[in-house]
Write the structure tokens for this entry.
Amino acid sequence: MNSAATTDDFCAAISRGDLHAVRACPKADLHTHGFAKADREYIREKTGRDVEPIKTPLTSMDDMHAWTQANLAEMFAGSQGRALAIEANFVGALKDGVTRIEFGDDVWMVTRGLGSPRELVDSIRQTHARMARSVEWIPQLGLSRHCPLSALQEWMAPWLDLGFHTVLDLSGDELAQPIEVFKPLYRAAKNKGMRFLADHQIRLNICPTSNILLGRVARLQDHPIRKLFDAGVIVTVNSDDAIVFGAGVSEELLSLYQVGVFTAEELDQIRRWGLHDVLGKQFI
Ligand SMILES: [Zn+2]
């Protein structure tokens, strides 16, 4: 299908609220995490457990961690659990019509005794080749904001030595430590050849449902993504934690239309922004 035909199909699908047709259109998910894109039905099939997503806003990141501990931690623990999470992530991407996805391990995974960074990367690579060859996987290295800088530096070093990851994701509680604390990590990544965007080319990968359910934005209608878009900032819409919040990129796009934040044509522009790296560069 050529891109003009996809645009027509996408706009028509958004306007009539047709989730299946929205899912069928190619799109990117540029902000998600190790287990977070896991498909609920796949998990149910494989484990018999149904993960009921969060419906009402949480009051803090601690609530989020407690929920994750109670609902996912045991299921995704150990080598088998990690393998299940990776498989379920790719299944989730395929179901959502995602043709590019960024996710990967957090640096602390080296402390779990599940293998070296090389082995951990290879296991994702093999699952990707086996289950979702049609999806472009952009390997992301996660950094949790609540961890001390010295620990992050130590855990990160062997991952950087691989020279494999192209994207860093600083995740977790925005209030845990000021952003400046993490500068040395970005410098280290840059020294190892990871590419960075020029200031004026920053694309913001935004996760609206996550922002609401984590209490950062009160209502979808008021999400600052509209202001950013109007100011000419390149934005994308992403799922963050589909298994936790119950919305893939397709649902996110539909919701933004249904509450009147964007027109179908604007959402198509946002969808297309995610499909390519701006100016051919890889972004964080
Ligand atoms: Zn996130």
The first strand starts at residue 27 and ends at 29. The two ends are 29 Å apart (CA to CA). Confidence is low (pLDDT under 50) at residues 280-284. The longest helix spans residues 78-95.
